[in-house]
Amino acid sequence: MACFSWLCVCNNNQRRKQVAGPSSSLQSINRTRSRKRRAEHRAIVPTTSSSSDEPTASIPTNNSLWSGSASSEKSIPQLYEEKAHNLRQFTLKELKFATYDFSKLLKIGEGGFGSVYKGFVKNLDGKEEEVVAIKRLNPYGLQGHKQWLAEVQFLGVVEHKNLVKLIGYCAADTESGPQRLLVYEFMPNKTLDDHLFNKAYPPLPWHVRLNIALGAAEGLLYLHEGLEVQVIYRDFKASNVLLDQEFRPKLSDFGLAREGPTGNQTHVSTAVMGTKGYAAPDYIETGHLTVKSDVWSFGVVLYEILTGRRSVENKRPKNEQKLLEWVKRYPPGSAHFTKIIDPRLENKYSMNGAREIAQLANFCLSKSAKDRPKMSEVIDILSRVVTYEELDGEEEPHRLSTENEEESETESEFDLELQSVRRRMLHLAKLRESTGVIAKRRLALISKVGVGVSL
Ligand SMILES: Nc1ncnc2c1ncn2[C@@H]1O[C@H](COP(=O)(O)OP(=O)(O)OP(=O)(O)O)[C@@H](O)[C@H]1O
Ligand SMILES: [Mg+2]
């Protein structure tokens, strides 16, 4: 599966080229919640059992996981303690039984963190069997345990239709080393990554793509604003968007999630973690993490949804390998814009909708974190675009000669935008000459509105 999993993006000096965002800036997050200083964090995962097959001690004795929430009223571990009874504690024996001893035939995926198996566990009443996904972490060092613990605690606390449900966990010591497993609700339709990029699957229709984006945005909004404590997801990417029976999205993988800044803090300072191609450049550069880092990653995925291309594709020609640099050459207001739209959509998409999604993506990809929209604003825009019913995606505009095309691709975004405006004005002028009085008035109005209008 995804190859950049749990990648530590270490090059702090690396500065990526930005996709230009709109000039208007939004208010930065106005955080009014006052949170008391929390003195210490208590144990949250069950304590040691002498049997090698029983859950073992997994108690965080330091606060490193939760350093960002030193002043929160309630931290994730506290909330976890209140809700922990919701999670089941499995023995390794139970999970071996559930997966036919981790049979290769039941393996459904592999990430940087371990293998995922389909499994069958009995309900608590022991009567019915439930299909689950069981993630078994690779033998690991401290970091693996830390991420497992974060996942148990965050998913033990959150509850939202767009976040995957954690059913339980297992921590056991065996002769071959410590075992850490997670048991999730089973999501039958793989991930957004599979459906966008794996040609073995039929292409996702336009409206399904938009609804997936909208659901994922709602999941992020819940994390950012819907809990007592702010949560920064930190690993938003297409392979972490699981799809259910109806292709509704659920975010998975909370191993890198962090509590957000509190009190007067504007950000959380942390080692830079995430996935190459999705992490916000300001975060990579400074290690300063905010919810706006998630908004950046969301912008990247919006472009993946529009184009059907991954954020980084090393097999493409050099000037097309980095998605954000490539799409910069085809801004939403330009005549070339349709060139970036996923050809697998076969023009069955809303033209205006696609332009607005690209504008929204650019907004999310604003260079300065504070200029990026809040997820609530992202949702407002997506909710509107989802209602556009016409699938009037254009044919690719007439291709220029190869020579001209190469030339035009090196032109700046501004030049392209300008050319597009000029073309539209000329077009409008021609139309004015050949239309009646009423139409003339309408066109005059349209030309006043300017760049954003496509005829
Ligand atoms: N709850 C689930 N239900 C069904 N399949 C799942 C579930 N969770 C994970 N999978 C499958 O397992 C695969 C691997 O998931 P995993 O999260 O370990 O890796 P990844 O997202 O591809 O990479 P990364 O390690 O970077 O997150 C997913 O792509 C998906 O196909
Ligand atoms: Mg994942």
TrEMBL record:
Q: Which UniProt keywords apply?
A: ATP-binding, Kinase, Nucleotide-binding, Serine/threonine-protein kinase, Transferase
Supply the CDD domains for this chain. Answer: STKc_IRAK
Q: Does the keyword Transferase apply?
A: yes
Top-level division of the source organism's lineage: Eukaryota
* Membrane-traversing stretches: none
GO molecular function annotations of the record: ATP binding; protein serine/threonine kinase activity
Where in the sequence does UniProt note compositional bias of the Acidic residues kind?
Answer: 403-414
Record: residues binding ATP: K135
Polar residues composition bias: residue spans: 21-31, 46-70
Question: Per the record, which residues fall in region Disordered?
Answer: 19-70, 393-414
Q: Cite the Protein kinase domain residue spans from the record.
A: 102-391
What does the similarity note say?
Answer: Belongs to the protein kinase superfamily.
Query: What protein name is recorded for this chain?
Result: Protein kinase domain-containing protein
High-level lineage: Eukaryota, Viridiplantae, Streptophyta, Embryophyta, Tracheophyta
